[in-house]
Specification:
This protein has 281 residues and is α/β, with parallel strands linked by helices. It contains 12 helices and 8 strands.
């Protein structure tokens, strides 16, 4: 067992538990489409700019950034997940975006030219660093003077029933889960309102703004699809990862019952709450 937090993160993002982020990336992209749209609006990437995409996954945000910076710009997508990066590389090749590339790498330590970039961007890739201040100090050095950051992160679990409520509905079926630790790296690592500024100001950023945004996440057209989505990504998927077939079947039925109570004309849509975090170098 490794005691290196960075190695632990690499193992996690290259494990069977997280493989669906590559193999089912289209479902992830559909779920988070509204988040990416709002983040791009806040970041306002311009023609010719050089961008780092932190935790780029299977490349949807890299593709969107490449379109906006144009052929004279540059986009570098970084992610620890090898399978996701392989998907991103295929998609970039198919799109013909020579100004963009996706690389397997830890943004906290990846070799970057000092002052070589205009924008740090991330759709949910900033909450996982074991030492976030050190990570963003490294990334700050890669920005030119006056460069900027725009990232999204989740607010508290209670503000995100799209993921917390299904997990709570399954609690009677599963072994006790360890309590969440405030500010710990993970999905809700930036949930506390003051946390992003603590990290970024500690790393040398200024003018940090944390703007709350509320959205609706469409988990599927019906309860059965929403249940499968919950069992593929996020807290429910992690809790069920080692469950036997009987437990999974029972969980599927329980989730379908839960989501049936949230199904409407647009399918199963549940509330989500994020921060859009912006800062200046």
């Amino acid at each position: 067992m490794t005691t290196n937090p960075d190695a632990d993160a690499a193992c996690f993002w290259n494990s069977p538990m997280t493989r669906a982020w590559a193999t089912e990336h289209a479902r992830v992209d559909a779920l988070f489409a509204g988040v990416l749209e709002r983040a791009l609006e806040a970041a306002a990437p311009r023609l010719g700019e050089r961008v780092i995409d932190i935790g780029c996954g299977s490349g949807t945000s890299v593709l969107a950034l490449a379109e906006r910076v144009g052929a004279e710009g540059q986009v570098l997508g970084l992610d620890l997940a090898r399978e996701s990066i392989a998907v991103a590389q295929r998609r970039l090749t198919a799109a013909g975006h020579r100004q963009a590339r996706a690389e397997v790498g830890d943004a906290a330590s990846y070799p970057l030219p000092a002052g070589g970039f205009d924008l740090l961007f991330s759709r949910f890739g900033v909450m996982f660093f074991p030492d976030p201040v050190a990570a963003f100090r490294h990334l700050h050095a890669a920005l030119r003077p006056g460069g900027r950051l725009c990232a999204t992160a989740f607010q508290a679990p209670t503000a995100n029933p799209w993921t917390s409520a299904p997990a709570a509905a399954l609690r009677p079926l599963l072994p006790p889960q360890p309590p969440a630790q405030s500010d710990a790296p993970g999905q809700f690592g930036w949930a506390r309102a003051g946390r992003p500024a603590e990290i970024l100001e500690g790393a040398g950023f200024r003018e940090v703004r944390v703007t709350p945004q509320e959205l609706g996440f469409r988990l599927g057209p019906d309860a059965a699809t929403a249940a499968r989505t919950a069992m593929t990504f996020g807290a429910v998927a992690r809790a069920l990862f080692e469950a036997d077939a009987a437990t999974r079947a029972t969980a599927q039925m329980a989730l379908e019952t839960f989501f049936a109570g949230h199904q409407g004309p647009d399918g199963v849509v549940m509330p989500a709450a994020i921060w859009i975090v912006t800062a200046q170098a």
